[in-house]
Amino acid sequence: LGAVEASVRIWSIKEAMTKALGMDMAQSWDRVEVRDVGENKSLVLMEQMEYSAWHDSMDNHLFTLITDVVEPA
Fold this sequence. Notes:
4 strands; alpha+beta
């Protein structure tokens, strides 16, 4: 991914976590760490819990869905 594509995914992840966990955007920027940014899937860490973020786009709009907690290996 290029810098713009990765930045948009990071923003989208933070916004999705805000909505999924009922916090405000400032809390999300402080508490949510994006560990790996991918074209279709990213890894997110918040308070020692890992989440998956799934990305899809349509007509130049990016959609991100936070789906689950990743179980530790």
